[in-house]
Amino acid sequence: MYNKRTIAVNHVKEHATIYIFMIILFLTGVIFGAIIVNSMNWAQKEDLFFYLERFFGEIADKEQIENTEILKSSFFYHAKYLFLLFILGLSVIGLPIVWILLFLKGLVVGFSVGFIVNQLGMKGLLLASLSIAPQNIIIIPIYIIAGSLSMIFSLTLLGKLFSRKIPQPILQPFGKYVMFFTFLLAISVVASALEAFVANEAMEAIIKSFYNQ
Length: 213
Description:
Helix content: over 70%
Main location: membrane
Largest sheet: none
Protein name: Stage II sporulation protein M
Order of helices and strands: HHHHHHHH
Keywords: Cell membrane, Membrane, Sporulation, Transmembrane, Transmembrane helix
Function: Required for complete septum migration and engulfment of the forespore compartment during sporulation. Required for stabilizing and recruiting of SpoIIP to the septal membrane.
Low-confidence stretches: none
Oligomer: single chain
Distance between the termini: 52 Å
InterPro entries: SpoIIM (IPR014196), SpoIIM-like (IPR002798)
């Protein structure tokens, strides 16, 4: 266990620049999402809030959404996202797409939270804290790590292509790459479970309390 922890710490230290770059990229997306909310005019906000209210109304009126269905849907979404990052890491030309995907993830989070808080005030902050934050506390680091691993492996391939030394076998780095992504996929199950059994329940309870007041 101690040896594995040492390997992980050394890996992060060795590639600290890449991890910091990915974190900054994600946070930039969050900031841009908040800026978009503030730059929207009144009519645009009202149109979007109309659809949000319809969604809230459907949740308040109908029976509870099946948690198992949300769990499956959430997991398959994360699995597809991680698989895409995995595939993009296998090709050097896919690296810019990795950056775009991570930036867009931050943009969506920043816009979603920003819009809900902008329209609902403290109620929106409570809703975002209990229905958006729980799963994202886990899934955001997973995406940042996955994007970083994808970038690291892509740069490793690039280095081997242009290296004048005798090419080193790529099988061992690829094996580690697969192992890390498998581990991240397993952790994403926890994020999906939080979304299905914690965030969903909290969201339904809060929205129904809004309509019962």
